[in-house]
UniProtKB/TrEMBL annotation:
GO biological process, one term: lipid metabolic process
Protein family per UniProt: Belongs to the cytochrome P450 family.
Subcellular location: Endoplasmic reticulum membrane
Membrane topology per record: Single-pass membrane protein
Residues at which heme binds: 436
Protein name: 5-beta-cholestane-3-alpha,7-alpha-diol 12-alpha-hydroxylase
GO molecular function annotation: heme binding; iron ion binding; sterol 12-alpha-hydroxylase activity
Keywords: Endoplasmic reticulum, Heme, Iron, Lipid biosynthesis, Lipid metabolism, Membrane, Metal-binding, Transmembrane, Transmembrane helix
Entry cofactors: heme
Residues involved in substrate binding: 109, 286
TM annotation in the entry: 6-25
Length: 497
């Protein structure tokens, strides 16, 4: 009889030893960035990185300069912290730095979706066709109507709608934006009340997945949490299945276009279901949290709220007294645009990643050259290196609603670092091939929501002196940050004047 316990134990020792040996054997080669493997074999700096990503990167930059390579869980990441040197990475005309490979592995792990050749380009093509111009205006109208439905209910304002109601601001914003976005994109039935109930339940499950998401990506879940993730994935695959969608009206042209492409490529319906889950996450995972930060900043800065309400009154006129206003007004709101851009500067903290194919030489803005090793990952963290740079944005931690406005009220686009004009002065949507294809829709959703809330509701914090909550440390690097705790607020429907 084979004693499997000792055999498996010996095998585990060999595997762990091999992984540790790989980390121990790696040495810095000539012209490579400074290498910092950390004190723990294989894990490297993974724990410090996860605990507080911005502080870890600040420490590494102070220790090594603007370019350094660190070991994180067996993988080597080269961080480039000088925004003037981002250009060659984001443009990458030689195609040596690959975003698609990393993205395909991530969506397979998180959503179960197996990418096919060309679908990355297809998503961008669909977004250009249906999330810009007339396509976007049509979707904005749908979104406006769905926001009205979710906020006011199927029967319109209730008799007590003008009475104060209390809620958590983060929960309120995320809940409203998710439900309206879900109905706008994935359609509805003739039973409106049932649609709203289903959207509410789906949001509850979405938040469960959302809370597990950061540790899921890093494979840090416990056994029960892995089971829960599997359950949630199956639930979303079923709820968002193409079979379910056939029974709905109003499925957006954007979603329909992409599903048609997958059908024409022979993708099985079960994989199309997983694609829908991925697109729900991509479209709704950040709009609610961003809107929370926007409304919180407005509530903490009365001068910003006043300026925005005055702009809304000018742009919307009498139509602003109705939820059914002309969505083309979104193109004439420079103050709101600045508020949203400032909110994203403070609240969006994505990590931009590229896999290095073949050894590659990176030339910095200073002229210095670094050799990047094949198989490593190049990483940019714009929140720290751009958004929080006091040279680019004076008083970077302060919310200034007019930071992106010129004195004449036009949009400000001229920002400088070290006396040089900088192209990437904010990067909440990524850049280059990883630029978010749905950014115009996401921004329109948030602008519609903020406009409706400030024009139709009285809003106030339960405790006016409550500080802006710190960021949940788990959310660094994953799109828009989330607060470590919610903030209580009150709202009531304004009476028509």
């Amino acid at each position: 009889m084979v004693l499997w316990g000792p055999v498996l134990g010996a095998l585990l020792v060999v595997i762990v030893g091999y992984l540790c040996l790989l980390g121990l054997l790696r040495q810095r080669r000539p012209q490579e960035p400074p290498l910092d493997k950390g004190s723990v074999p294989w894990l490297g700096h993974a724990m410090a990185f996860r605990k507080n990503m911005p502080e870890f990167l600040k420490h590494m930059r102070a220790k090594h300069g603007d370019v350094f390579t660190v070991q994180l869980g067996g993988q080597y990441f080269t961080f480039v912290m000088d925004p003037l040197s981002f250009g060659p990475i984001l443009k990458d005309v030689k195609r040596k730095l690959d975003f698609v490979e990393y993205a395909e592995k991530l969506v397979l792990k998180v959503f179960g979706y197996q990418s096919i050749p060309g679908d990355h380009r297809m998503i961008h093509s669909a977004s250009t066709k249906h999330l810009m111009g007339n396509g976007l205006e049509d979707l904005n109208k749908t979104m406006r109507d769905c926001l009205s439905l979710v906020i006011l209910g199927p029967a319109g304002p209730s008799p007590d709608a003008s009475s104060w109601r209390e809620d958590g601001l983060f929960h309120f914003c995320y809940n409203i934006l998710f439900k309206a976005g879900y109905l706008s994109l994935f359609g509805y039935t003739k039973d409106t009340e049932q649609d709203l109930l289903q959207a509410e339940e789906l949001f509850t499950q979405f938040r469960k997945f959302d809370r597990l998401f950061p540790r899921f990506v890093y494979s840090l879940l416990g056994p029960r949490e892995w089971l829960e993730v599997g359950r949630l994935q199956r639930l979303f695959h079923k709820t968002l299945s193409v079979k379910e969608n056939l029974e709905k009206d109003g499925v957006s042209n954007w979603i329909a276009y992409m599903l048609q492409f997958l059908r024409e490529q022979g993708v099985a319906p079960a994989m199309q279901d997983k694609f829908n889950f991925m697109m729900l996450w991509a479209s709704q995972g950040n709009t609610g949290p961003t809107s929370f930060w926007a409304l919180l900043f407005l509530l903490k800065h009365p001068e910003a709220m006043q300026a925005l309400r005055e702009e809304a009154a000018r742009v919307l006129g009498e139509a602003g007294q109705s939820f059914d206003f002309d969505v083309s007004a979104l193109q004439r709101t420079p103050v709101l645009d600045s508020v949203m851009e400032e909110t994203l500067r403070l609240g969006a903290a994505p990590t931009l990643l590229r896999v290095v194919h073949d050894d590659h030489v990176l030339t910095m803005a200073s002229g210095e050259e670094y050799r990047l090793r094949s198989g490593d990952i190049v990483a940019l963290f714009p929140y720290l290196s751009v958004h929080m740079d006091p040279d680019i944005h004076p008083e970077p931690t302060a919310f200034k609603y007019d930071r992106f406005l010129n004195p004449d009220g036009s949009r400000k686009v001229d920002f400088y670092k070290a006396g040089k004009k900088i192209h990437h002065y904010t990067m909440p949507w990524g850049s280059g091939v990883s630029m978010c294809p749905g950014r115009f829709l996401a921004l329109s959703e948030m602008k519609l929501f903020v406009l409706l809330m400030i024009t139709h509701f009285d809003l106030e914090l339960v405790d006016p002196d409550t500080p802006v909550p710190p960021v949940d440390p788990q959310r660094w690097g994953f799109g828009t940050t989330q607060p470590s705790h919610d903030v209580r607020f009150r709202y009531r429907l304004r009476s028509p004047e």
